[in-house]
Amino acid sequence: MALLEIKDLHASVAGKPILKGINLTINFGEVHAIMGPNGSGKSTLSNVLAGNEAYEKTAGEVLFAEQNLDDLAAHERACAGMFLAFQYPVEIPGISNMYFLKAAVNAVRAYQGREQLDAMEFLDFVETRKKVVKIRDDLLERAVNSGFSGGEKKRNEIFQMAMLEPKLGILDETDSGLDIDALRIVADGVNALRSPERGFLVITHYQRLLNYIEPDFVHVLVHGQIVKSGGKELALELESEGYASWSGEEGP
Amino acid sequence: MEHMELRKKAEDRFITVGFPTTKEELWRFTDVSPVASAEFSGEWKPSSLAFECMDTICLVFENGRLSMERSCVLGLPAGVRIGSVMDCADARIGRLADSQSAFVAANTAYFGDGTFIGIADGVELDTPVHIVYLADAPGMVCHVRNFISCGKNAKVTVVEEYIGPSSPVGHPYWTNAVTEVFVDDGGRADHYKIQREAPDAFHFQTLEAHIGANAAFSNHAVAVGGALGRNDIRGKLAGQGGEAICNGLYLLKERQHFDTHMFMDHAVSDCNSHELYKGILDDKARGVFCGRILVRQDAQRTDAIQSNKNLLLSRSAKVNSLPQLEIYADDVKCTHGATVGQLDEQALYYLQTRGIDPVQGHAMLTFAFANEVLDEVQCGPAREYIGNLVQAWLNEVAG
Amino acid sequence: MKIQDEKSFDELAGKQYKYGFVTDIESDSLPPGLNEQIVREISRRKNEPEWLTEWRVKAFKHWETMEQPTWAKVEFPPIDYQAISYYSAPKQKISAPKSLDEVDPELLATYEKLGIPLREQEVLAGVVAVDAVFDSVSVATTFRGKLEEMGIVFCSFSEAVQKHPELVRKYLGTVVPYKDNYFATLNSAVFSDGSFCYVPPGVRCPMELSTYFRINAANTGQFERTLLVADEGACVSYLEGCTAPQRDENQLHAAVVELVALGNAQIKYSTVQNWYPGDKDGRGGIYNFVTKRGHCRGDNSKISWTQVETGSAITWKYPSCVLKGDHSVGEFYSVAVTNNLQQADTGTKMIHIGKNTRSTIVSKGISAGRAQNSYRGLVRIQETAENARNFSQCDSMLIGDRCGAHTFPYIEVGNPTAQVEHEATTTKIGEDQIFYCNQRGLETEEAVNLIVNGFCKEVFRELPMEFAVEAQKLLGISLEGSVG
Predict the structure, then answer these.
(1) What's the pLDDT tens digit per position in C256-306?
(2) How far apart are CA A105 and CA A160, in angstroms?
(3) Non-local CB neighbours of B126 within 8 Å, separated by 6+ positions
(4) Which ranges of C337-412 does DSSP label H, i.e. alpha helix?
């Protein structure tokens, strides 16, 4: 069984076609990287997969663990094991990170028919996950992403991923705006979560992140289509040659 | 009886000016004719209402009368006096609340009881004082008067709570309260007001605070009860280095009408004032917020921030927001803002991607909206108490 | 920052208002006073149809029952409405000039002096058509031929009453009814002239239309009335400028402007108001009590007000938009400058009725000397206004510590899908900013000018090019002497 199967996916934003036929299969345990220049449709892909209603899927089919995504609302996709680490995590003043995480963890558990965690069990669970992805206690007490620095927000996303233990982690330009130290911490967190039961889709503009999170496959997305796929060496190729050779003629 | 002259003057004024009408700018959005035309001939009776004691010093009033049996004011430290306002001889009573409106005039003329809290210079009372006003006598008027004196470098926390039955009393009662607070130089008074009167009650209160040099005053007002109500909150920053925080939350449903008029007078330089008012309105409720910051000519280096945010949950709810700045000094930092809107779609989506369904997400974000005010509450027991109250209200509205 | 000493204040005050001259011209005036006879006489002299005479009389009778409003934050002694002359027309040899050649050369010279040449070939290289109103009467309208070819009617109000009575009757008082408010009602009774414009369906007016108002005669009030209609899909940009001579007495200006935008129509209305503000002690100056309102009647219509208010002793005006059509848009961009003893209470009203209506308010108030400057604005979202949006930004700047800046927004929301945001800030010019400019070689006055212009940029960029330049200069003149 494939973890994620994308077949001829088309999508548009505000009536404007962005994705024009994406085909991609991710198996359990694999890490796929999608690279592409600005405006190629990278963020659209992650938002369509996560179920953002501002993005409209116009054609094609996406199967997530053999389940058709069309049948699932955004929260159901999350509960079924899809996690999106946002490029711009949303600030929610008034809700503490801990409260938020407890609500999310229990929502996922309820969907999967597992028992709810009470306050004590939840705290214990937080402690075990803190060993995987390091996060400062004061960030957990503060309101969700409110007043966090760029690096803190990204780290908070990865911590949430560690808490929710998804089948598929989608990282949407998680490296943007991070300095080298923050990048390393985030990458360490992701690497710690790599397992045969889990896949990753790493979306990025730069090869840099892939030095730390080594992908099994690299795909190049230009003008809403995957124009080339290969191994991790493709990322290095891109780094030296840039996207120029694809952004011109080969696009529609 | 003391204050004879004061009462006589106030009565004359009440009779001359009468109840305000919507033609007056200050009362444009609040029609008090239901109060003006109602008959209040109800008889006093003891109250059968229960309340949750906050494990503090506690004064309990039944339909406007102090009940020593239900109160607990034992073992007060030296320099702390708490009791009935009728036993208080402080000449400053009536100095702040000087018949500004018919409601204050009526209160001054007719108040029958209330709370007096006196904290001597340098005394810090760490235990909050919980004042509970229980009201359930049909057709009664409770003119209650509170006087709080916080001495130099003294400290006090007061929670004023107005409680009515959860169902209508039939013939509405009218609570008409006035609270005067003096915070002397270097003092700190934290004041909380929780209003959860009966669904058909009238509730009016004027709070006047006089804030000395380097003194701090805070007020958090939460309103969930009553059919028609209004808070007039007026602070005067009279000494340099003073600080005032006035926050509030109004949670309204059905046909409730609640009005908050906030006035902050920056009379001298180097003072700060912050106001954050939030409203959540459902059904046919109507909320009014008018906040006025006055920065007088001498009040250089004033820092004043005012914000009013409203969330409408229903098509028939309505809100009026009037955040006002009146500034006569040039070296000041003053901002105000007001918003009316819905929950943030982006935040709702974010919650969804974390597995939280839209209904729960909605509830969480609504609570978060109110929580911004609760976060500012410093007093632990008060924060927990108010938090539960807000949660209960939200559950009721959602259910 | 030091306030300049009295002597240099005097020096500056004298040169501040460069439009303060009086034109020596004979005028045909009615004696001071106001009664039904006067109202009928104004109407008779203008040879108006009976319906209009009766409309005026109705307005007058209603006005007699009204009281002058007191809610604005302005103070002035009671106005003696019986001491004002309600009609003053420059006497001309021939009763109505058929071409500019017949206009009194003194009048033409006056407009030259004001920088408003009426000779068509000179009018800003042919991009602006001008209607000039002198005291109460329109004296000349340029570029009529060219506009007529496109079906655009642009003429004085009196002429429109004679030539296009059906249009006037259809729209007059439909935006600002004669009972609207004290000053608008007075205007409805005694208005003498003004501009009229009608742009037919689908026509985009090829040039800026402009009216220039000038009060000349003493003891007269000016009560002009402007009516501008943009029919389905029409588009027009309109400019308005005002000046008056320097006199010790206060003069009353109570104008009414009505705008009507039908479906898909767009109207842009820009004002540079530079009436005589009075001297530094507050003697003289114009009382500017103006009612301006636009109706976005049709879907997708848009009305945009831009105003730069530097003159007048007292300004009382709230150019407003009633957003009735679905998807209609209202905008208000304002700079109000008060110096010395000037008082301004100005702002806007945005009434959202239609679905998906949008409004934007940007107000910049600058107060110097002993002046008082208030923003007063209403945003009302009615129950029917699904998905309405408003954003308001009101910033005040204080120069000196004897002036006042005030903000009085009124927000009323009756629809849960609305989003309304209001923000206001008050600041002074930072001494560090001035020092920075000084250090780069700018004099303090220049620095203030620069900073204030930057503060107002968002509004100035909404003005047509010619006006933007003039507005910047005016700002400098108005603030002269406010800092030392």
Answers:
(1) 999 999 999 999 999 888 878 888 887 888 888 999 999 999 999 999 999
(2) 9
(3) B155, B157
(4) none
Q: Which of B345, C109, C310, C474 is nearest to C119 (CA)?
A: C109
Sign of CA dihedral B312, B314, B315, B317: negative
Please tell me the number of Cα atoms within 13 Å of A144 on its side-chain side. 28
Q: In chain B, which residue's Cα lies nearest the Cα of C393?
A: B337
Cβ atoms within 10 Å of C477's Cβ, excluding its own: 17
| Of B188, B61, B197, residue with least CA distance to B130 | B61
A touches which chains (3+ CB pairs under 8 A)?
A: B
Q: C430: exposed, middle or buried (C-beta count within 10 Å: 0-12, 13-18, 19+)? A: exposed
- Give the Cα separation of B63 and B136 in Å (integer): 7
DSSP for C239-286 reads: EEEEE----SSEEEE--EEEEEE-TT-EEEEEEEE------TT--SEE
State the DSSP H helix or E strand holding residue B110, giving kind and residue range, or none if neither: helix B102-110
- DSSP 8-state class, residue A248: S
Domain boundaries, chain C: 22-317
Q: In this complex, do A90 and B352 lie within 8 Å of one another by their Cβ atoms?
A: no
What pLDDT is stored for residue C33 in this prediction? 86
Least confident of B201-205, B292-296, C30-34, C46-50: C30-34
* A112 to chain B: closest CA residue: B355
- Structural domains of chain A ordered from first start: 4-247 (3.40.50.300)
User: Cα A78–A79–A83 angle (5° rounding)?
Assistant: 30
Going B88 to B90 to B91 to B95, the CA torsion angle's sign is: negative
Cα dist from C478 to B211, C13, C371, C398, whole Å: 40, 10, 12, 14
At B100, list the tokens.
């500004």
Amino acid at residue number A220: V
Interchain pair B342, C411: CB under 8 A: no
Shortest CA gap C74–chain B (Å): 13
A98-127 core/surface letters (b: 16 or more CB in 10 A; e: else):
bbbbbbbbbbbbebeeeeebeeeebeeebe
How far is it, in rounded angstroms, from Cα A138 to Cα C172?
A: 66
> What are the residues whose beta carbons fall under 8 Å from the beta carbon of A135, sequence distance 6 or more?
A155, A156, A159
Q: Is the dihedral of CA C43, C48, C53, C55 positive or negative?
A: negative
Give the tokens for residue B156. 């006090």
Of A197, A199, A202, A198, residue with least CA distance to A186? A202
The amino acid sitting at B333 is K
Q: How far is CA A250 from CA A8, A9, A228, A244, in A?
A: 18, 19, 11, 10
Joined together, the tokens standing for residue C278 give 């009075």
Nearest CB neighbour to B356, from listed A84, A94, A104: A104
Is residue B14 helix, strand or coil?
Answer: helix
Do residues B216 and B246 touch, judged by C-beta distance below 8 A?
no
Angle at B156 (CA atoms; ends B153, B160), nearest 5 degrees: 150
Nearest C-alpha of chain C: how many angstroms from B25?
A: 8
* pLDDT tens sequence across C122-136: 443 344 566 666 655
**What local confidence, expressed as pLDDT, does residue A23 receive?**
95
Beta-bridge partner residues of A26: A4
Residues C119-177: tens digit of each pLDDT: 543 443 344 566 666 655 555 566 677 788 889 998 888 889 999 999 999 999 999 99
Q: H helices within C114-206, ranges in order? A: 144-149, 157-163, 165-171, 182-190
